[in-house]
TrEMBL record:
Signal peptide: none
UniProt keywords, alphabetically: Lyase
Protein name per UniProt: Unannotated protein
Stored InterPro entries: ACMSD (IPR032465), Amidohydro-rel (IPR006680), Metal_Hydrolase (IPR032466)
Nucleotidyltransferase keyword on record: no
Gene Ontology cellular component terms for the protein in this record: cytoplasm
Residues covered by the Amidohydrolase-related domain: 74-361
Pfam families linked to this entry: Amidohydro_2 (PF04909)
GO biological process, one term: secondary metabolic process
Example GO molecular function: carboxy-lyase activity
Length: 361
């Protein structure tokens, strides 16, 4: 490992923390508490039939890791201690609780109030040190007018990161190229905040997850990451990034290697195969390099061999605390190994400077 004095300063583009439901309800009017509790129960019951939930449960419960049960998973002050232990200056954080999937179940009035309460609870976690704990506020997609108001409120109160569901159709609303979202993309462009899309349960893979004969769904898990190609395609090929050229997208934990192939294919369909996409004025890959960023944890082959193709300004390191593949508490050692032979300027972009630019740090 490099001596402390010359280690690169690290910014993790993806870490996780647990948000307590009591914290959310502390910001929610008591008249909505019963509906909130019912929504949690109904959501938990519905998940029993999801293959995606089965796969996710296998990943997240049946593992051991030094960070798994640390106080820093739920306590912001303890988290700062664990960040210091790992030599990480700043973490971009995602709640383990996915409010997208149940808050709207509270219905008219209660749903919007619960979303606001959820985001206030996220802000409370970050308030211990908002320069180091960059929480990703969850933006609703059922009510676009409220979503616009919430983005403006988040930006006005110093928020730096927005999270949207990767696959909106799972929640019964159209894909992101639909014009219903245009007011939201417009206001997000104006704020300069990034849209973060974190991989997770993908209901389209339910059948595969149930057919998967392996322990911990070893067939399904890699496919979940690669299914990000569908989501990227909606943003790129659907013309969203043509219409809203200032948007910053971050796909979180999608993996890197397959994206190099995907970039070749989407351009090849135009240049060699003669496909035409009226929504695009440039080669499809142009929108990737201009607007899209990827986080990764530990892919030495991609860093050593594919970083130029992926774009050294488009990829960002993360320690994924406290998940099974997290590099905590040895992130500097891992970075040292991965970046042997990589120019310092490129290393610094990937482990720090890209994140500082994307999140306006």
């Amino acid at each position: 490992m490099l001596p402390t004095a010359i280690r690169p300063r690290l910014v993790s583009a993806d870490g996780h923390f647990k948000l307590d439901h009591a914290s959310v309800k502390s910001h929610l009017a008591s008249k909505h508490h019963d509906a909130y509790d019912r929504a949690l129960v109904d959501f938990a019951a519905s998940m029993k039939g999801w293959g995606a939930a089965k796969a996710n449960q296998g990943i997240m419960t049946e593992y051991t890791h030094p960070a798994k049960d640390r106080l820093g998973v739920a306590d912001p002050r303890a988290r700062l201690v664990d960040m210091d232990t790992d030599g990480v200056d700043v973490e971009v954080l995602y709640s383990e609780v996915s409010g997208f999937r149940y808050l709207y179940l509270l219905g008219e009035g209660g749903g919007t109030a619960a979303i606001r309460a959820f985001n206030l609870a996220l802000g409370e976690f970050a308030s211990v040190d908002p320069e180091r704990l960059i929480v990703s506020y969850q933006v609703p997609v059922h009510d676009i007018g409220f979503a616009v108001d919430e983005v403006l409120r988040i930006a006005a109160t110093g928020g730096r990161s927005l999270q949207l569901p990767v696959f909106p159709t799972e929640l019964g609303v159209p894909d992101y190229y639909h014009s219903r979202y245009d007011p939201l993309w417009s206001v997000i462009s104006e704020t300069g905040l990034p849209i973060c899309l974190h991989i997770g349960m993908n209901r389209a893979l339910d059948d595969l997850a149930f057919r998967d004969p392996t322990p911990q769904n070893g067939i399904t898990v890699p496919v979940i990451a690669m299914s990000t190609a569908e989501a990227m395609g909606m943003w790129v090929m659907g013309g969203v990034l043509e219409r809203f050229s200032d948007l910053k997208l971050v796909f979180v934990e999608p993996g890197l290697g397959w994206v190099a192939w995907w970039l070749h294919i989407i351009d090849d369909m135009v240049t060699r195969q003669g496909y035409q996409y009226p929504s695009l004025r440039e080669l499809p890959s142009t929108y990737y390099y201009r607007n899209i960023h990827l986080t990764y944890i530990d892919e030495p082959d991609a860093i050593q061999r594919l970083r130029d193709r992926l774009g050294v300004r488009n990829i960002m390191w993360s320690n994924d605390y406290p998940h099974p593949v997290s590099s905590w508490p040895n992130s500097h050692a891992l970075v040292s190994e991965q970046f042997v032979g990589v120019p310092d300027a490129e290393r610094d972009l990937i482990v720090r400077d890209n994140a500082r630019r994307v999140w306006n740090l």
